[in-house]
Amino acid sequence: MLRLPAAEREGFAAGFRIISPLLPAIFSWGLVTGVAMSKSVLTVPQAIGMSLMLYAGSAQLASLPLFAAGMPLWTILLTVGIVNLRFVIFSAGLQPHFSYLSLPRRIALGYVNGDLGFVMFMNQNFGNGYVPGKEGTYYGITLSNWAVWHVSTILGIVLGALVPDSWGLGFAGTLALIPMMVHTINSRSTMLAVALASLIGVLAFDLPYRLNLVLGVLGALAAGMVCDELAARHAKRLAPAHPVKVPIAASPPAAAGPNAVEPQKDAVHSARHPSEDRRG
Amino acid sequence: MSTFEIWFAFVAMTAITIVTRTFFLLAGERVALPQRLQRALRYAPAAALAVIVVPEVVLLDHQFAVHLGNHKLAAAVAATGWFIWRKNMIEMIAIGMAVYTLGRLFL
Q1: How far is it, in rounded angstroms, from Cα A169 to Cα A139?
Q2: What 3-state DSSP class applies to B63?
Q3: Given an 8 Å threshold on Cβ–Cβ distance, is B83 in contact with A107?
Q4: What is the DSSP letter of B28?
Q5: Is A70 left (phi over 0), alpha (psi -120 to 50) or beta?
Q6: Model-level pTM?
Q7: A85–B41 C-beta distance less than 8 A
Q8: Residues A94-105: pLDDT tens digits?
Q9: For labelling, which of A46, A57, A69, A146 has a CA lying 20 to 30 Å from the CA of A154?
């Protein structure tokens, strides 16, 4: 650590300054996650172990009811995989920045990535490939996030274990998933996808092995892709009339539900556009 | 689940997390998901969270229960509304838990 080049050390400090305004939010999110984990079927050492290993808040919270219901391992792994899918897209964003590094360093870099850290890093608009101080900045951001997350989660697990179960604090884990959901709803097509997933999730709830999760997500992907396709066609049709830039509000009538959740952005955003800003 | 199974589950979950987080970093330039698929993947996490959260709050004992007597639903609606309005997670959790607890104790 002490032998790092000066540029990377300065980058690290800059990274810390970039993320520091968000650290209270990360702390509170970690605290709630920890409390919810302490109220699950996991013992305190198990909850701490899971949190330290996974380092993935939403996936941790999402898997708790599955542990409680004694679901088979594959359904738990599938849930973790789906909730983490956004990181596959994030990794595509990081790839051009760090592809020059060795494999172990790329793995370490990916492992410490989080939603907030990713967004803050990408906001810095570094050039591709090696840039002095870039790797330091990345680690300044992500490791600050990492440290605050672990401290707050473990604190939540320990404090939560002191509170009687009858207070119903386990429900805080369900509530804590809502911000992540709301933040990802940044277009009508996401709204439609989420609404459809919810509907399928409820209707298919009694299917075994949490198959409602698989069906809900597949339904949402299909609906989202259809929306994107329609929006793209709509944009193309309008293009000659408005040659500059058309804000796209195209969505089928089914999407006319309660979609005033977030400021609407156009439905055909590029895949690299990160819509979340909560750590996960 | 036995203790061993639980820890085995954690190891497997961690492996999945690392694979998803490092997917393109591992693959380097050799692999590129089609743009269309990448766009579609954006919908998956929100959908998965919705499938987990919504049934938990609209179902009571496997029965559809969309009324204010369902404390979890009332709490989730209040919390979501608060979060959209104030963008503050701690306040949101506090409001949600307050509605849930008051409903549970007094209604």
Answers
A1: 34
A2: strand
A3: no
A4: G
A5: left
A6: 0.80
A7: yes
A8: 998 998 999 999
A9: A69
User: pLDDT averaged over chain A?
Assistant: 84
Q: Tokens for A106, please give them.
A: 């790329």
Tokens of A269: 């955003």
Q: Examine the pLDDT at A247 and tell me if it is beyond 80.
A: no
Token pair 């608060």: residue: B82
Amino acid code (one letter) for A200: I
How far is Cα A218 from Cα B58, in angstroms, rounded to an integer? 21
Alpha helices (H) in B1-107, listed in sequence order: 3-27, 35-41, 43-58, 71-86, 89-106
Point out the residue among A76, A169, A198 whose CB comes nearest to the CB of B54. A198
- Across the interface, whether the CB atoms of A54 and B13 are under 8 A apart is answered yes
Where along chain B do its domains lie? 1-32, 42-106
- How many CA atoms lie less than 13 Å away from A121 in the CB half-sphere? 34
At A3, list the tokens: 């032998």
Query: ipTM for the complex?
Result: 0.90
